[in-house]
Write a structure and sequence with these properties.
60% of the residues lie in helices and 0% in strands. It is mainly α. The protein has one domain: 434 Repressor (Amino-terminal Domain) (Orthogonal Bundle).
Length: 93
């Protein structure tokens, strides 16, 4: 799968929103280990998001397709407010 590489320069407010949304998501899921188990995303990937204070656009899209994450009310736009164009399944080939 081709990775999404948004050519964006997040504003300070967007950076703050990304960090807060990520921390909130992890807390709502019961921690990094629980989020990893729930989604199948490796634990070390999730901890790297915390270090960077943001999630990649590709993983934001992937996470928000998980029913449990959707049920919590999270969206890819909330996790990555700087991304304006999202890749669709058809574009992935």
């Amino acid at each position: 799968m081709k990775a999404l590489k948004p050519k964006t320069k997040p504003t300070d407010d967007q950076c703050k929103q990304m960090a807060e949304s990520l921390r909130s998501l992890i807390d709502d899921c019961g921690g990094t280990t629980k989020l990893s188990e729930m989604t199948g995303i490796p634990f070390w990937t999730i901890t790297s998001w915390l270090r960077r204070k943001k999630i990649s656009a590709e993983y934001a899209q992937r996470l928000c397709s998980v029913p449990e994450i959707k049920a919590l009310g999270y969206s890819k736009e909330a996790l990555r407010p700087d991304v304006t164009v999202w890749e669709t399944k058809a574009q992935r080939g």
